[in-house]
Amino acid sequence: NAVIGSVRTVVGWLPERWLPGGSPDPLIGRHGEVGRQLGHLDGPLKVTGAARFAAEVPLEQLCHAALVHSPVARGRIATLDTRAAEAAPGVVLVLTHRTMPRLEPVPLISITNMTAVGNSALPILQDPEIRYNGQVVALVLAETPQQADFAASLIDISYDEAPARTRFEAAKPQARTPASILVERNEEAVGDAEAALRQSAFQVDAIYTTPGHNHAAIEPHAVTAAWTGDRLVLHDATQAIAPTAAALAKLFDIRREDVRVLSPFVGGGFGAKGFWDHHVLAVAAARLVRRPVRLVLSREAVFRMVGGRSPTEQRVALAAEAGGRFTALIHTGYSVMPPYGACPEQYTLGSRALYRAQNVRFGQKHLDLDVVPNTYMRAPGEAVGSFALESAVDELAHQMSMDPIELRLRNDPEVHPLSGIPFSQRALAEAYRQGAEAFGWAARNATPRTRREGEWLLGMGCATGSFPYVRMPAGAVRIRLTRDGRASVACSAQDMGMGTATVQSQHAADRLGLPLAAVSFEMGDSDLPPAPMAGGSGQTVSIVAAVAAAATKLTGELLRLAGNASPLAGLRAGEVRLQEGGLVSLADPARRDSFDAILSRAGREDITVTESAAAPLEMFKYAMQSQSANFCDLRVSAVTGEIRITRLLGVFDVGTILNPRTAASQLRGGMIMGLGMALSEEVLFDERSGRIMNAGLADYHIPAHLDIPEIDVRWTGIPDPRSPLGARGIGEIAITGVAAAIANAVFNATGTRLRDLPLTLDKLL
Ligand code: MOS
């Protein structure tokens, strides 16, 4: 925190032009391939089945792993009998805490340390202690997955149970107040919000709850690990290729260059495709048996040992004077974060940037429960925080008989409300204007329970979503340019399905002044220059910045090679641009030299540069925040309480859109995840045993096609002048605000205010 504060102060003093990226990216508004509708370049590989995922790589001598999970939440293993399992057909190895190699703990995920990737600081099969229900207590390797599963069922374990902390309510008196939530200070206060709340003419003061949410990517976590001597190749489904390679090298005490992590395709990753126990288990087992090992988590295992979002209990209090200006905003609450976890589920973070209020108070408390550590899940914090905040805004608007959009815009801040730093770009009002018009907001009747069709009560609602801009500091890319005017751009980027190679190819084509067909983007391999993890919606801009830096370096090297015989002789890198297969003078476009001519004169076939991006100082100089306006049209059965969504519409103020098709798809997917959060997703946790009761998709309900309505996705398209290419990231924002828009529409339809997710029909009867 202190570090962030000082960086902000120092950077705030720097003149604009001294900042890397201080002057806007020259490619903003000047691009050609960027912004063009283009299908996924690897789409044909996927739809024909040619793409090989981590669990599909064919290897000789492969053996398959199965896991055993603890059925108790706390205690220690008392007796352990593996003889029957070892004697079962096809069994190659049974690994328990007795036979597992001794390993250092995994370094935890951290925003500021890109080589740390672990979700949990707990030891992995290092001792007989049980720390949560679902913890892995044994691994079985066999010739087939079926043999491994069967043998795992034969392991006989008894436990000495100890009292476990598994009750949310009971843990509150011992709640911890962390100093920070990610990179922000946790507790913030301006003025006396409680006093302002008591004195204001209008106020809402309510508790909102959200249940645990579990990761449910279509592809469960999977690794295939193969050692050759002291060299390791890991086929992985990961959002963090380079950090995983670095962590494995450290844990298994081998050189970084002797680890290769390959992850060309990932079947969905929403924060959980990082580094989990299964990496360590599979790699250790493969080393012991000197055979390749495949470990695919069952759907149940994803619930037991990967987990997801913490449950939250949030208080939001809002007060306003008659004109609508907020006099108080309080957002506090409880979530679970065991001390061995890394994700603070920062649900108050969005509230700090969204509204101007005279008096504010923010703060989060953590409960230490003996549970699978909660983890990052699409818009950690904002996804559930926006449900509470934006429900409360709607409640206040109703109380004041004011249009909820109007109330929001009257409190739209000009600068970041806490830091006072200027926003780089912010057009929430424009998003609402576009959204209200396209949606037909004017048709809404503000009085609840007034529109009806037969048994169906009709309602409309809206809510704001938000997510910060993140550009990650580490990372490099390599560009190889050949004489025939082709470029290959490479780094260890990740693609969880959003189209990384597609948009980066579009960008590289524009940046290098080449047609799309002349550019290739290599990724998914830790032997390539290291990319930061795909997280925080920051991968795209992080790589764009590195490509831009490499392109600048390439320009300099080409000029140097061009020499005195070139029409560009005497010009410096800042005086030319890469365009149409060569370098062109900015001042005099008639002065140009093609890549072919430059490399031919120099007697070269190709030129290669590798470069990293400058530090993301723009994040400190400006408040960089994306926002969205969400609208929902729905009906509720007056007979059964069943909610049916008719339409969703989202307008996103997220900077430049790199590819309308892949972006719309990603934004629509995020809104669907928000719909699931609103209506059905809920981890059912038995507080007596600490056991998740619905560990599987049969009982943990994500939206199916029939639950999903027409979803209209739009954007303001206004570039952010402070970010590479004017883009600000779209991976996470779309889940935010959706649940509140739905809950607000339910109120409009029924007159019943639901403050507890999911919005199931029993709560409406
Ligand atoms: Mo995200 S929750 O940073 O994948």
UniProtKB/TrEMBL annotation:
SUPFAM superfamilies: CO dehydrogenase molybdoprotein N-domain-like (SSF54665), Molybdenum cofactor-binding domain (SSF56003). Keywords: Molybdenum, Oxidoreductase. One of its GO terms (molecular function) is oxidoreductase activity. Pfam families: Ald_Xan_dh_C (PF01315), MoCoBD_1 (PF02738), MoCoBD_2 (PF20256). It comes from Salipiger marinus. InterPro entries: Ald_Oxase/Xan_DH_a/b, Ald_Oxase/Xan_DH_a/b_sf, Ald_Oxase/xanthine_DH-like, AldOxase/xan_DH_MoCoBD1, AldOxase/xan_DH_MoCoBD2, AldOxase/xan_DH_Mopterin-bd_sf. This is Xanthine dehydrogenase YagR molybdenum-binding subunit. Residues 48-163 form the Aldehyde oxidase/xanthine dehydrogenase a/b hammerhead domain.
